[in-house]
Amino acid sequence: MTDTLLRPGSGMLPGGPGEGMLVEVRGEGELRTQDMNLNIGPQHPATHGVLRVVIDLDGEKIVRATPVIGYMHRGFEKLAEARDYRQIIALVNRHDWLSAFCNELGVALAVERMMELEVPDRAEWIRVLMAEWNRVLNHLMFVGSFGLELGAITPVFFAFREREDIQGLMESATGGRLHFTYTRVGGLKEDLPRGFLAASAKMTRNVRVRNSEYRDLLEGNEIFKARTRKVGILPPDVALDYGVSGPTLHATGIAEDARVTEPYCRYDKVNVHVPVGATGDSYDRFQILLARIDASLDIIDQVLDNIPPGPVNVKLPKIVKAPEGEIYVRTENPLGQGGYYLVSDGKKNPWRLKMRTPSFNNISAMSYLLKDQLLSDMIAILGSVFFVVGDVDR
Amino acid sequence: MPATLPQIGLLKGLALTLKTMLKPATTAQYPHVKPALPPRSRGVIALMEENCTVCMLCARECPDWCIYIDSHKEVVPPKDEGARARTRNVLDRFAIDFALCMYCGICIEVCPFDALFWSPEFEYSTYSIRELTHEKEQLRAWMDTVPAPPELEVGAELPKEIADGLAAARKAAEQASAAVTAAADAAPAAAKEGAGPTATAVEEDIHVEVQIDQAVFDQLIAEGKTERVARAKAKAAYVRAEKARIRAERESGQ
Questions:
Q1: B190 plus B127 within the same structural domain
Q2: Which residues in chain A are contacts of B16 at CB distance < 8 A?
Q3: Which of A71, A108, A158, B180 is the most buried (most CB within 10 A)?
Q4: Contact B105 A181 (CB under 8 A)
């Protein structure tokens, strides 16, 4: 087929019999186009929930991106004002549903610190164990979903196989696979069942082996590297400006981890390794996920060596009342730093429970990250900034 | 020859998937094979109606207020003359709306009378959301699916009932051994007083294989007692007689 020049006014339509022709444009030499306004979401398989990103597109390039949140707002903080602390622990499982135990832990710590309650040693160690397993669960989910969004369907099945095994382990202790409601003010609900620690040790070995499988499947994959290297680079100062935390921040090179800087439970007695990345691109963020899984498994092994015998809860009054005052507790949730600001007026319901959730800040960096990126890279960036919409909106 | 093959990452990944493909599948064929759920699994809440005293703590503590309880007070006439008439709470309706239920377990935790239990039963889906409100008959039926609680992990604190019982037994044993040594040390003149404590100490060591005293059993059946009651009383009578016999033997032997 010879190339014929399609002149304006020649009556040929693109996609018609003359398709594939060169177009000669008279004028400045640049096609005048309009920016297109595109809505990604709220229903979208790649946005990890109901997140809406409104983007202005110039051809394939994103000129401006604005995340619109609030589609999953459930009024959690208002609900908390009408519930007592044990009921709040049952509810707070549900905002970052991938790391339910870590959320509960923050609320329980806030109340305990206000009441100046001495939590038994064994309970604190088991809390570290459960929190680290939850971290592994959370990161496994993102390992799988990141690959899935880029089109790699296999890793998500592998990751979910691990998740099922670990969730089965958690179910034997807490009764639930996703929403544990295992912490109580002053310790835990009940002790672990017989055989849990042995099963836990076996599981760490299995997950370590399979972690190396994810490296084979995704981390070394050339297509994956081409799609995620140098995509979505987040400089450390911008990350700090937006208040980004967790693996997204560690990828930029800053190793800020609340387990190390403000240790809670028994994190001061274990060796916490915080992997950091070099460039802050999507590939680094993914590499850090895998490294963090290994680091959490190391912590679990250390905890398994150190759990002392003893009780796991304290005798509480019939109605748990936090004394008047306020407190802010920082915890390292798997997605970043979670803050729990509790204001109490002495009653059994809090006066105000404000939660600083890590995903909220992580997606605020989205407008910076998506600027001047190609639309095809948008999914790689969305998948690599770890957030859960329930955590964003509460 | 380059140090690594080109596209080696892709090849490694493909090798892994090939290896996995050649392994047998471990899919659990669900409708034919039921999953093995741990005993603490939170499937459904079962109600032991006999234990419920309608204290309403569960309904009060539920974060969703999904437990609906109705009751009325009944006056029970006094057993003896001149005693006060007692009032009793009678449970009319106990319903849990499982469409609202968060499966948090707070109701089960607060029940002071052990009337609510977790059960791993999960196959109660319905076509209409209204049918998810289950009444006390269904909740009582689910009690049959409640498993025994698992043993606690090594190093866990024993449950209070067992710990108290063990402490009491230890204390009694210490007292008994102290009494035995006191009796041994005491002068023979005080042997009579010593015999009492030693006798009780020895009685605690007597272990009798439980059997039914046939004569007592027949007599109780003839009196019209139920078989269960007759069996229990016959066993108790046998054990009492055996212990008395052994005690007498030991005393005569001593």
A1: no
A2: 213, 216-217
A3: A108
A4: yes
Q: What is the DSSP string of A300-363?
A: HHHHHHHPPPB-S--PPPSS--PPSEEEEEEEEETTEEEEEEEEE-SSSS-SEEEEE-HHHHHH
* Interchain CB contact of A91 with B (< 8 Å): yes
Domain final position from A11, A41, A68: A68
List CB contacts (< 8 A) between A195 and chain B: 153
Contacts of B26 (CB under 8 A, 6+ apart): none
Strands of B37-169, DSSP E? 44-47, 67-76, 86-97, 116-119, 133-134
Establish if A87 touches chain B: CB-CB under 8 angstroms.
Answer: yes
SS3 assignment, position A43: coil
Same-domain pairing of A115 and A149: yes
* DSSP symbol at A97: G
Q: Is residue B186 part of a domain?
A: yes
What number of other Cβ atoms are within 10 A of residue B53's Cβ? Answer: 14
A158-213 per-position pLDDT tens digit:
999 999 999 999 999 998 899 999 999 989 998 999 989 999 999 999 999 988 88
Question: Per the structure, how many domains does chain A have?
Answer: 2
- Are A216 and A297 within one domain? yes
A228 touches chain B (CB under 8 A): no
**Rounded distance between C-alpha atoms, residue A246 and residue A262, angstroms:** 14
pTM to 2 decimals?
Answer: 0.79
Please report the ipTM that was assigned to this predicted complex: 0.79
Confidence of residue A22 (pLDDT cuts 50, 70, 90): low
> Whose structure tokens read 């507790």?
A329
Do B61 and B86 sit in the same domain of this protein? yes
Can you give the pLDDT at residue B138?
Answer: 92
CA geometry: angle B197, B199, B204, nearest 5 deg: 100
Phi (first) and psi of residue A297, to 5 degrees: -65, -35
Distance CA B58, CA B66 (A): 10
Residues of A in contact with B103 (CB under 8 A): 176, 179
Burial of A304 (0-12, 13-18, 19+ CB in 10 A): middle
Tally of domains in chain B: 2
- Domain assignment of residue B239, given as a range: 160-253
Does one domain contain both B133 and B212?
Answer: no
Does a structural domain hold residue B60? yes
Q: Are A181 and A89 in contact (CB under 8 A)?
A: yes
Under 8 Å between Cβ of A304 and A197: yes
Shortest Cα–Cα distance, A223 to chain B (Å)? 8
SS3 state at B95: strand
Mind telling me how many Å the CA of B41 is from chain A's nearest CA? 4
Nearest residue on chain B to A194, judged by CA atoms? B153
Q: Which position has the token pair 């009651």?
A: B229
B15 chain-A contacts, CB cut-off 8 A: 216
CATH assignment of the domain containing B60:
3.30.70.3270
Contact A309 B16 (CB under 8 A): no
Task: Kindly state whether residues A199 and A318 are assigned to the same domain.
Answer: yes
Residues A264 and A142 placed together within one structural domain of the fold: yes
> Which residue range(s) make up the domain with A58?
2-68
Distance from CA of A8 to the nearest CA of B (A): 46
pLDDT of residue B200: 45
Gyration radius (Cα) of chain A, Å? 24
Can you tell me which residue has the tokens 């958690």? A170
Question: Is A112 in contact with A327 (CB distance < 8 Å)?
Answer: no
